[in-house]
Structures are given as structure tokens and as C-alpha cells.
Design brief:
The complex is a heterodimer of chains A (about 150) and B (about 425).
Chain A (H helix, E strand, L loop, with lengths): L5 E2 L1 H11 L5 E6 L5 H16 L2 E6 L8 H4 L7 E7 L4 H9 L1 H5 L3 E6 L1 H10 L1 H6 L2 E5 L2 H4 L5
Parallel strand pairs in A: 1-6, 2-5, 2-6, 3-4, 4-5
Helix pairs in contact in A: 1-2
Chain B lengths: L1 H23 L6 H6 L18 H11 L4 E6 L5 H12 L5 E7 L13 H17 L5 H15 L7 H5 L29 H19 L3 E7 L7 H15 L5 E6 L10 H5 L2 E5 L11 H8 L8 H10 L4 H17 L7 H16 L4 H13 L7 H8 L3 E6 L2 E6 L1 H6 L5
Parallel strand pairs in B: 1-4, 1-5, 2-3, 3-4
Antiparallel strand pairs in B: 6-7
Helix pairs in contact in B: 1-13, 3-4, 5-6, 5-8, 6-8, 13-14
The chains are: A alpha/beta (about 150), B alpha/beta (about 425).
Chain lengths: ~150, ~425
């Protein structure tokens, strides 16, 4: 397993805020499957508090590879999209890769995956890999060593 | 808690320092914004031949002098192909009769499916929009062709009687019972015949384009996105139908093609296109070329880091333009998180390591062995499919220097690659 830089939901969203609301960004976030729900909830809360946006939550299995424009339509109101890659779906990753501009134009997009699925996705998606703003491991505040909740 | 409060108070001002820099360095920012803000550094010559004009100038000159020319631009992911297309478009706009249609096909069609006719249909719809903007009421035959084209391209809902829909399989209306059988001739066609639907779309496109063509307009189609098909054969199928259909129409085509076609044994790229331009990774050694440093400097790097850091970022980007921006941006973020007012050596090193790890993902034992061979012996069998994977994924980069092409491991990856025993 490759040790990418670690962060917390708080620090991640602070980073999005520092970059500016209008700055498109595409992050691949890694976490253990067991804590995925908690990570999602933490990110949603931080997005709401720090950015005042809603987090649009999508599961990979809900996104149709041939209709990415529905999932990644840039809204006029601010939002952050979080797609949980809950299963290994090669067709979806291939579609992300070929139609990568739809993701990069959608504003702030976060892809959340286990290490294993992330590895598959990066290997199968050269365009996706090249356009990622960063790859980060998301940990809880306690695991990261932060005092603040 | 105290630390957090302190840093967030102090961070307020620092944010104003870093934010504009980060915005200028966003590798996925809309390129048109960069062109509009004059942040693009055009190359001053062809990267494969210092004696030749820059790629965007060569493409624009060919489009202006030989209408109907078909040109391909090939290069690895992040090498700056879209930027060259935008620069070409800017040069072409110097003539008032220039009609430049710039499209990323992913905006119009699902690139997962082979979708011949999609290029022609997209161009037709874009030309019609252009005509409408200029001439409030296009001729009736043009409007009618556009309506048919939209129906063909986007589909429509037809209401049919229930009986007709369900009796379809029973063969009542299937005519005299003939089925088409292809009898191959002696001669093998250089390109397959145009499919019926492609011919139909071509006819409609020509009708839509007729007011412009009759006025001798210089129409150039700049088509981005097909490089993401990756595989040479998928691109070929588009070229053999859509691009072939545009031959003889006086509409010039500049299309971005997958890098693997450059190395395809069939030489399809060189045989089919009238002009092919290749963008290799830029010379990454700052002593060889100032190009990469100029890109960073144009975006304000020297306001936040010293020349040594600029040189280091240029070197470890491997000459991949998107990686250059990613490294600079990532180093800035590390410095910001460190509560520093300037980007230091350790921030650049952290950014290089993070980029290297990104390229490390997915490498198997065979890949590592191949990378080691390349690093040690300069051996890289480009016709081998696993070697091609490394090239497509930018773990290996292709360079061109003094008339010679050569390969090298991406320097950021090389910096984190465990040494084999």
C-alpha cells in the first residue's frame, strides 16, 4: 500500500476553501471501508460549515457510465460532489477517463474509495490519474492526531 | 485548539498570498481562461525541430493556405495538446472570414461507445449555431437540414400504432425476402466504405455549411478529446468514417490523436493525415530549455519561491506540462499548511514525492523490472503492449532531442521507485 499524504475532513475542506469556491478540483480520497460512512458524514458536515455548500452524495453504482453529464452537471448554486466508489466498476472508470472533462468542469469533485479500488481506478484511468488535484488518505481527527473535533 | 486558532487567524492574510497563485496554477482550470489572461507561454519552435515554426503556427498556416487539409496533433497525456489547439485557434482568428469550430467531443457524445457520425453531427450543429448568431434567419433548406441532423444525432420520440410495433418481428412487411451479402472484390479498399448514416449526416452537414462555403469562408474544425480513446484502433474507426467523409469538403480538420498511434506499426497516422505534429515531453533539464521555467514565471512563481525551487519543479515534472503545474501547486499547498510565506525546498520535495507516489500506483513486478532496465540500460521495447501501458500512463516519457527520440522514467516516479536488488 502506498502511503499518500494523510488529512482529515476538516483539513481537506479547509484546503478547498483556501483554493477558492470557483476553483475546479478533483480529489481522490482513500479510506478504510469500515470508516467510509463516518468519513462521508464528516466531509458533508465540514462542507456545510466551512463552505456553506451542500455535499451532493453519489454512489458509483448509481452513476450511469453513458450519462455522466447527469451526475456531473455544474449547478449554478455552489456544491461539492462526492462519489463513493463503493464497487469496482471498470466501465464507470473507463467512462470517467474518456469523458474526464465532464468531471473537471463540474467544480469541486471528490472521489472516495478504498485503497484497493483506488489502485484499480488509477491503473485503469490514465487521464483521470493525470488530472487529479491530489490523492489523500482521509483519517479521523483522533487517528490523525488532531485535538479538534 | 490554541494552535488551530492561531494558525487560522494568521492564515487569513497568507491565503491572499497563495490563492491567486493557486488559481493560476490549477492544472484543470478552463484553458480559455488562461489564454484570456495571457498565462500561456507559446513555444518558440517545433519541439521536435528547432528549425521549424511552433506547432500552432504550422497548423494555422496549413489551414489558411490549403483548405480541406487534415492534420493530427499527437502527444501524451498532459503534454499541452489542448493548449496548442487553442493557440492555433487564436492565430486563425486573425482573418475575418475564419470560422473556427473548437469542440471537445466528450461535451457532445459518449466516448465510451464507438459513435461514427458523431464528429460530423457535432460540427453540423455547431456550424448552424454560428450561422444563427451571424444571420438571424438561415435559409429554409439549412434550417431543415439542421432539424434532420438533430433528429439523427439526438434521436426523437415517434408515436407508432401498437399493432405495428408488435408485428415487426413477424416478417409481414419485410419486402421480397432478400438479405444483403457482401461479395469481396479483388482490390482491398484503402479505407472502408462510408456507412449509410455517415453519408446521410455528411449531406446534411454540407447543406448547413453551404452558405459559408459559398462565401469562401475558411472553416477549420479543431477537434479535441479523441486522444482519450487511447487505443489506436478506436481512433482509426472515427478517422476512417467521419474524417474521411470530410475529405474534399474544403473544411479543414485538426484533430488530437492518441499517442500510441505515433508508434503504431501500420503508420496510419502518417499515411492518412496531410500533416502530423508530435508534442513530446518538454526538455526537463533547465539547462537545456527555459520553456518550463518561463511557464512557472509567467504564473508568478518567483513571487513565492527562489529560482532553485523553480528549477527543481521543472526538472521533476519530466517536461509534462500538467505535472509542472501540479508540482508547483502542491508545493504551494504544503508551504501554506506549514504557515510559511514562501515555498521552500522541503515543500517542493514533498510535492515531488507525492507526485511520484501517484505514478507508483498500479506498477507490477514486470513494470518495475522494465523501468529499471530503462533507467540502467536505456532499453525500452515500445512495440510491447506493457511498455505502451507505461508510456500511456506517463510513467515513461518520450523525449526528442537533436533528431533522436528516446525514453526515460518519469523523474518524479524515479525518485520514489524502490531500487531493485
Amino acid at each position: 500500500m502506498i502511503d499518500f499524504s494523510a488529512t482529515t475532513a476538516f483539513r481537506l475542506v479547509r484546503r478547498l476553501a483556501a483554493a477558492g469556491q470557483d476553483t475546479p478540483s478533483l480529489y481522490l480520497l482513500l479510506c478504510e471501508t469500515a470508516v467510509m460512512d463516518a468519513v462521508r458524514a464528516d466531509i458533508a458536515a465540514e462542507v456545510q460549515v466551512q463552505l456553506g455548500f451542500n455535499l451532493r452524495l453519489l454512489a458509483a453504482s448509481e452513476v450511469r457510465p453513458e450519462r455522466l453529464e447527469d451526475a456531473f452537471r455544474p449547478d449554478t448554486v455552489g456544491h461539492v460532489i462526492l462519489v463513493t466508489l463503493d464497487h469496482w466498476l471498470p466501465k464507470l472508470i473507463e467512462s470517467f477517463d474518456r469523458n474526464i472533462v465532464l468531471l473537471t468542469r463540474a467544480g469541486m469533485v471528490l472521489l472516495l474509495a478504498s485503497h484497493e479500488i483506488a489502485e484499480h481506478a488509477l491503473a485503469a484511468g490514465p487521464n483521470l490519474r493525470n488530472r487529479l488535484t491530489d490523492i489523500l488518505v482521509v483519517k479521523s481527527d483522533e487517528a490523525f492526531g488532531d485535538e479538534r473535533a | 485548539m490554541e494552535t488551530d486558532l492561531k494558525s487560522s487567524t494568521a492564515a487569513f492574510d497568507r491565503r491572499q498570498v497563495y490563492r491567486p497563485f493557486l488559481e493560476r496554477l490549477n492544472p484543470i482550470a478552463p484553458l480559455r481562461d488562461l489564454v484570456d489572461h495571457d498565462l500561456i507561454v507559446p513555444r518558440d519552435h517545433d519541439p521536435c525541430d528547432a528549425g521549424q515554426a511552433p506547432i500552432h503556427v504550422a497548423l494555422a498556416d496549413a489551414a489558411e493556405l490549403s483548405r480541406g487539409t487534415q492534420m493530427a496533433l499527437v502527444g501524451g497525456i498532459g503534454s499541452g495538446k489542448t493548449t496548442e489547439l487553442l493557440l492555433t485557434q487564436r492565430v486563425l482568428s486573425r482573418h475575418s472570414d475564419a470560422v473556427n469550430i473548437f469542440v471537445d467531443l466528450a461535451d457532445y457524445t459518449d466516448l465510451n461507445e464507438l459513435n461514427t457520425g458523431a464528429i460530423l453531427a457535432t460540427v453540423g450543429m455547431e456550424l448552424y449555431s454560428r450561422l444563427k448568431r451571424e444571420n438571424k434567419k438561415p435559409p429554409d433548406e439549412v434550417t431543415s437540414a439542421h432539424t434532420k441532423l438533430r433528429e439523427l444525432a439526438l434521436g426523437k420520440t415517434k408515436w407508432v400504432p401498437v399493432e405495428e410495433a408488435y408485428n415487426h418481428d413477424q416478417g409481414d412487411d419485410e419486402g421480397p425476402g432478400f438479405v444483403p451479402v457482401d461479395v469481396p472484390g479483388l482490390m482491398r479498399l484503402r479505407f472502408p466504405a462510408l456507412r449509410h448514416v455517415v453519408k446521410e449526416v455528411k449531406g446534411l452537414l454540407l447543406t448547413i455549411a453551404s452558405p459559408l462555403l459559398e462565401n469562401d469562408a475558411q472553416i477549420t474544425l479543431l477537434i479535441d478529446g479523441l486522444d482519450r480513446l487511447i487505443r489506436a484502433e478506436r481512433f482509426r474507426q472515427y478517422a476512417e468514417q467521419d474524417l474521411q467523409a470530410l475529405r474534399g469538403t474544403k473544411m479543414t480538420v485538426i484533430v488530437v490523436a492518441p499517442l500510441l498511434l505515433w508508434y503504431d506499426k501500420s503508420r496510419f497516422l502518417q499515411d492518412y493525415f496531410d500533416l502530423v505534429k508530435h508534442i513530446p515531453a518538454a526538455a526537463a533539464d533547465p539547462s537545456d530549455s527555459a520553456f518550463l521555467k518561463q511557464i512557472l514565471e509567467r504564473r508568478g512563481a518567483l513571487e513565492l519561491m527562489d529560482r532553485a525551487e523553480v528549477n527543481s519543479i521543472a526538472k521533476y515534472s519530466g517536461g509534462v506540462l500538467r505535472d509542472l503545474l501540479t508540482l508547483a501547486r502542491s508545493a504551494a499547498e504544503y508551504a501554506y499548511r506549514d504557515d510559511q510565506d514562501r515555498i521552500g525546498r522541503k515543500h517542493v520535495q514533498a510535492a515531488i514525492k507525492q507526485l511520484g507516489k501517484r505514478y507508483l500506483v498500479g506498477l507490477g513486478a514486470t513494470d518495475r523490472y522494465r523501468l529499471q532496465r530503462l533507467a540502467d540500460d536505456k532499453a525500452f521495447p515500445i512495440q510491447d503492449s506493457s511498455a505502451q501501458e507505461l508510456l500511456v500512463n506517463r510513467q515513461v516519457l518520450e523525449y526528442f532531442s537533436r533528431g533522436q527520440e528516446f525514453f526515460a522514467v518519469h523523474p518524479a516516479l524515479a525518485s520514489v521507485l524502490p531500487k531493485s536488488k
